[in-house]
Structures are given as C-alpha cells and as structure tokens.
Amino acid sequence: MIIFKKKLDFKTKLISNLSLITYLLLFSFVIASAQMQLKIATLAPQNSDWASKFQEGSKEIQRRTQNRVKLKFYWGGAQGNAKKNLQKIKIGQLHGGTFSPTDFQDIYPDLNIYGLPFLFKNSDEIEYVRSLVDLDLESGFKRLGYEMYGFAGGGFAYVMSNEPISGYDDLKGQKIWLPQGDLISYEAMKSLELLPVPLPMTDVLTGLQTGLIDIVAIPPVVALALQWHTKIKYTTRIPVLYAMGFLAIDSKFINRLSIHDRNVISEVLRGIYEEVDADSKNDSEDAMQALLNIGIKEVTFHDNEYKRLTNLMIEPNLEMAKRDMFSLDLFKDISNHISEYRANLASQQ
Known about the structure:
Shape: globular
Largest sheet: 7 strands, mixed
Strand content: 15-25%
Number of domains: 1
C-alpha cells in the first residue's frame, strides 16, 4: 500500500510538471505570436517626407514580423500637443510619440543642452560634439522607461519674422515664440531682455496670423512642413540654436514582444533616424532655398552682432547649470568639446 502511494505521488508529480512545461511552452508561443499595434503620435503632417519614411518603415516592420507588429501613426498633432501625448502614453492610450528635447524638460533636462541658444556656430561643431555625447544621452531613456532609436537633427533654427532682423537691437521689443515648457529658452530670453511668448507648436500658425507673436526661430524644414512660412516675410540665417527630434516608445509595450520583433523594430526605426539625420544638412539648405524661392527675403546678421549675443549668453548658461536646470558636468564637457574642436580647426588654418 505504501509502495503504491509512492508510485501514485510520483505519477501525480510527473503529470503536474509536464502540465507546467506545457503551459510554459504554450505561453511562450502566445507571446511570440501575439499581435500588437503600437499607436504613435506625431506633429508631422501626413503628406510630409517624415510621414512617407514612417509609413514605409511600418510596412517593413509588419512584413518582417509576419503581421505581429503594426505601427499606427496619428499625424499632424491629431492627438494633441507633446504634453498631452506623454500623458496618454502614461495611461496606455498611446504607446509612443515623436518629441523634441523641450518636451522632456521636466524629466530629462540634459537633452536640452544641444539646444542652448548661440552655443554652436555651425553644423560641423554639433556633429563633432554629437559623435562624443549622443550615446550617453540615449542611455538616459532606458532609466526613464522608454525605448528610443537615435536622434534626428533638424538643423539650426533661424530667425523668421515679419520685420527685418539684422542685429540684437532689432530683436528687442519683438514678441518671440518659444515652445511651451521650454524653461531654458525662457531663461535665455529673459537674460537677453527679450519678450518670450510660450505657445505649443500647434498654436504657432494662429499666433503668427493674429500678431500674438512676431518672430519664430525654427529650422527651415519645419517652417515649410508646418506652413509657418505662409505668415512670415523675412529670414535671418543666424544659428540661434540646434534642433533635433526623436521617437520614444514606452518600454513596457516593447518588452511584451519577442526579442526578434524588438530587434526588427529597432533596426527599422534606427535606419529611418540615421537616414534623416544624415540628410538633415542638405535638407535644411534645400528648405531655405525653397523659402527664398517663394519670396521670403533673407537678411544679413552682422558677425559682430553674433559675437555680442554669444558673449551675453556665457554667464546665463552657467547660471542655469548651477541651478540644476541641466547637468553642470555635461555642460562643461560639451563646452570643452567645442573649444577643442575650434582649437584644432584654428591650428589647421
């Protein structure tokens, strides 16, 4: 009787273990074959080059994951501004979105250092610094609970206005747009004694039309894509700040996918961002030429006026870093990289 009971216990235990193994195999199969539609919000218009690249990428992801992963995009700010999109991601209504550094000001302020006004003189300087700093900035997204797939440079933001701007004094008294929540640009404008008007990007076109704002500083590509060029008359090719964008998706949704499908998403989306980033300099020049071709007048900003602005921003930038608006150490590293680049360039001339 005792021997029979032992055999029975062993058989029961064996069946139980087999059931567990079967369950785990079935669960793994379900995870591997599960379908997921990733909902992504963006300000990019549906008829833009950005949209074309995303749509092609979405088809490739769908094909290579055998329809397990689909990307659904909401174009042209249909889901609201960036702040609303982040809230919707938090509660699961969206899975991700395209953003600019200022959208993460509260939770990741170091992203905004690239965009400090009058920090970089040209695209060569920013390319050099990015080659040394980008990966460190990317790693911060993991700690925030997001997956991101590289940065795409939007080029330098230039002054666009309804009155000609050729020097610092011309900026005074003008209502200058800055992105809502961009505390760094706000502090910079205050230190320069200018008049900032914070607005979400979705309200800028109306602001230009109604006279709520007089000046925007934006890359030419963005001005064309969002139709802001229809409400301005002049552009001044002064590198106010460097603009860039990125796509962030909540990690908890990506982690539900198989490793294969995650790798496909990463490969395709990184490829898109690398392509856009590589083309950004030429795209910016083409967009600027397009603005000039449709009648926007270019105004020259004098070199001594640019130096005046860069000198005026040295102390305010340091003060912002000391107030923990971004990392003082990272700011010093980037400033040192810029100085090294300029010194090397000067020694070759």
